[in-house]
Specification:
Bound molecules: flavin mononucleotide
Distance between the termini: 35 Å
CATH architecture: 3-Layer(aba) Sandwich
Number of helices: 10
Largest sheet: 4 strands, antiparallel
CATH superfamily: NADH Oxidase
Strand order of the largest sheet: 1-2-4-3
Radius of gyration: 20 Å
């Protein structure tokens, strides 16, 4: 599918058919997600994929009863590792080996920079992990759409309950949930009217930031 077509086609889908996603297809979607960019290429994302009904039902409980979590073939808990140092050494070793860095001193300097980031307050580290992880989540949803699979990103969940229910270690931040599945007949992507978007005029500021100039409502008039 052409990328513009993909962009136009994607919708958040809530109703799914019983059709199963092939393991290899799911794997290829995750593979695509790992190609997302990340700060320093530190790739803080991890994905907990839930496919059996019991586990998905547990997730529905922490997702305020949202049924599409269970109806979808796969429900994914998207997690961000909040310790920037978690993968720093092998990442910079790769840069060095591929000639992105001139020498070991520069590599060590980068590790030190990331060590400084790792000393940031927890809330800053959560923000740091969320930035890159959200890009991986979006990449995953477009990769799914490209394979005819619908998705829905979700922030409607109780983070503390999720951490407890799925034994998520402290250093991981639950960033969002994503449901994945083949849409039920008549409910998929392009079949739903596109929800209105704010216009380019309202969201793009050339040169100077002038946020108060127009509102969503004004553009509707
Ligand atoms: C960060 C985020 C959180 C969302 N949370 C939920 C959610 O908890 N439940 C849900 O059904 N949809 C959720 N959505 C889907 C939005 O409602 C949807 O993206 C929006 O209405 C635009 O529709 P579209 O995705 O079909 O273009 C979320 C979307 C995003 C990006």
């Amino acid at each position: 599918m052409e990328f513009d077509e993909l962009l136009q086609a994607r919708r958040s889908v809530h109703e799914y058919s019983d059709e199963t996603i092939e393991d290899s297809t799911l794997e290829s979607i995750f593979e695509a997600a790992t190609l997302a960019p990340s700060g320093y290429n530190l790739q803080p994302w991890e994905f907990l994929a839930l496919r059996d009904d019991d586990r998905k039902s547990t997730l529905r409980e922490v997702a305020y009863g949202q049924d599409h979590v269970v109806e979808a073939d796969t429900a994914i808990v998207v997690l961000g590792h909040t310790d920037p140092m978690a993968h720093a050494e092998p990442v910079f070793d790769d840069w060095l080996a591929k000639g992105y860095l001139p020498n070991e001193e520069v590599r060590d300097g980068l590790v030190e920079s990331v060590e400084d980031m790792a000393a940031m307050p927890e809330s800053d580290r959560q923000t740091w992990a969320t930035r890159s992880t959200a890009l991986a989540a979006m990449t995953l949803m477009y990769a799914a759409r490209d394979r005819g699979i619908s998705s829905c990103p979700m922030e409607g969940f109780d983070s503390d309950a999720l951490v407890e229910s799925f034994d998520i270690p402290d250093e991981y931040e639950p960033v969002m949930l994503i449901t994945l599945g083949y849409a039920a007949d008549g409910t998929g992507d392009v079949e739903n009217d596109r929800k209105k978007r704010r216009s380019v005029d309202q969201v793009v500021h050339y040169g100077e930031f002038d946020p108060g100039r127009e509102t969503y409502a004004a553009a509707d008039d």
